[in-house]
Specification:
Shape: globular
Radius of gyration: 22 Å
CATH class: Alpha Beta
Number of domains: 1
Distance between the termini: 27 Å
Structural class: alpha/beta
Low-confidence stretches: none
Oligomer: single chain
CATH superfamily: Metal-dependent hydrolases
Number of helices: 15
CATH architecture: Alpha-Beta Barrel
Mean pLDDT: 96
């Protein structure tokens, strides 16, 4: 018997590609985990296995470049369930934020000791490919940047409010939370030195400079502490509206201005402004682009901030940082997406089980609820539902959740359906409408703030490097995800 040219042939798929407006019916051939041929009427007999897509849309595998796996339960337990949720949402690459301190591994110390343990607990447990961003929390971590780059981590993070405000609200024990030394501070001076370290890394490794970047969670502790006291004292607001007022939008905007000037001062050129949530945050980001045009400010939005507002029935279950905002801010975010001012859209997935999320004695108390929730499984469906209403093209959707994050973060074999790229493919039915039910999710969270929401468009099948990992409601096979040391892949036909 003659050897087959291809391992798998996906026939009759309407291909959605970033930067290509036309949606064309194609056959897609896969060999050795890569896309090997694209064309019309490729012979079925040339492949060992054939999948008939029956006219479904074919997106590249999604790159969810902002996830938190292992934050509220051990990484080795979180990775399997939450990567299954990613696969059911069409995500084939999960890029996870990780740091020392409380939560995650609940330990401090150098990354030379910390990160190998992260990789050990991750190995063999992800159903999708995965990578990590790391946060330099101490001066010692800044000195380790070269080592981290050699370990495949070229992207880093600053949490601008951590030095004076807690993860879930006001706090008086930030040094314990951060697990830093008595002579160390997590403040603007530290942020400056992190930026100088990242700039030096770019200078010392020019071949990597395009992929070396610094992400910032932009909120200011001083503003949030003051407004939290005001909101609590007045007692006029409750739920998500109270939490939004306690972390007001100008806290985001001012933090962006400070971060931008520090980037200018240090010549730190690749800055990612994470999860913009408000009109003021977007305006500040656009102003900084005008003021410092030589700095590449990339803007991120989350599907949660694009689907939910302060009146969401989920109430405290939708508590997240920065907060869910009033409807006017949601619409401003969508305007930024439609205007091309948002570079990518993510889930900011952080599985927080109900028993941890809310206080058992006061389940309705927004101040006692934990911050963060999952949502990677609804990333594509949510974007398609609201994007379609607003005239967002399918090609632009593919740029926002596939191509743009893959380019920024050095995932060069991801983000497109093209020859030589990893054969990550999502078969998507744009006409299948469904109601979100937490019971249907692969996540271990047990609830979702999107409960009861009707979404238009559903992932039917997800392929990771040519292997089916999700098929019409069920996970297929064992965890196949691998750690992606970045830059990952240089596609060649």
């Amino acid at each position: 018997m003659a050897e087959k040219r291809f391992d798998t042939l996906v026939k009759n798929v309407r291909l959605v590609r970033p930067g290509v407006d036309a949606i064309r019916s194609m056959d897609v051939a896969i060999r050795d985990g890569k896309f090997a041929a694209l064309g019309l009427d490729l012979p079925a007999e040339d492949a060992r296995a054939v999948i008939d897509a029956q006219g479904l849309l074919g997106f590249p595998g999604l790159v969810d470049s902002h996830m938190h796996v292992g934050i509220y339960q051990p990484l080795e337990l979180d990775a399997p369930s939450e990567s299954r949720a990613a696969a059911m949402g069409g995500v084939t690459t999960s890029v996870n934020y990780m740091r020392t301190g409380q939560y995650y591994l609940n330990r401090g110390g150098p990354y030379r000791d910390f990160f190998p343990e992260v990789l050990k607990q991750s190995a063999g447990r992800f159903h999708v490919d995965y990578a990590y961003h790391l946060a330099p929390m101490t001066p010692g971590h800044v000195e380790e940047l070269d080592h981290l780059l050699e370990s495949g981590v070229p992207s880093f993070k600053i949490f601008m409010f951590y030095g004076g405000y807690g993860l879930h609200g006001r706090s008086t024990s930030q040094r314990d939370f951060l697990m830093i030394g008595e002579d160390e501070s997590y403040d603007f001076a530290h942020f400056e030195f992190v930026m100088r370290g990242v700039r030096r890394l770019m200078d010392d490794h020019p071949e990597m400079s395009d992929f070396i970047s610094l992400s910032l969670h932009c909120e200011l502790a001083e503003i949030m502490n003051a407004y939290t006291r005001i909101v609590e004292r007045e007692g006029k607001l409750s739920g998500l509206a109270a939490y939004s007022a306690a972390r007001p939008p100008h806290s985001e905007g001012l933090a962006i201005w400070i971060a931008a000037y520090l980037a200018y001062e240090t010549d730190c050129l690749n800055i990612n402004l994470l999860h913009l949530s408000s009109r003021k945050a977007v305006e500040a980001a656009l102003m900084m682009r005008d003021v410092f045009p030589h700095i590449d400010f990339a803007c991120e939005a989350t599907i949660g901030h694009l689907l939910l507002d302060v009146d969401a029935p989920a109430a405290q279950l939708a508590k997240v940082n920065p907060p869910i905002r009033p409807r006017a801010d949601v619409e401003q975010l969508w305007d930024a997406v439609l205007d091309g001012d948002v570079d990518w859209i993510v889930s900011d997935h952080a599985c927080c089980r109900h028993e941890l999320k809310v206080d058992a004695r006061e389940p309705g108390n927004i101040w006692l609820a934990k911050s963060g929730f999952g949502g990677t499984e609804y990333l594509l469906s949510g974007l398609h539902t609201e994007g379609k209403k607003r005239g967002l093209s399918l090609s632009r959707m593919a740029e926002l959740v596939c191509w743009n994050p893959s380019r920024r973060f050095g995932l060069l074999a991801k983000g497109d359906v093209a020859l030589g790229y990893d054969a990550d493919l999502v078969l998507f039915d744009p006409d299948d409408t469904f109601v979100v039910r937490a019971a249907d999710s692969e996540s271990a969270q047990g609830y979702t703030p999107f409960e009861g929401m009707e979404l238009e468009g559903r992932v039917k099948k997800t392929l990771l490097r040519g292997e089916v990992i999700y098929d019409d409601g069920r996970i297929v096979g064992p965890p196949r995800g691998k750690f992606l040391k970045r830059p990952y892949g240089a596609p060649s036909p």
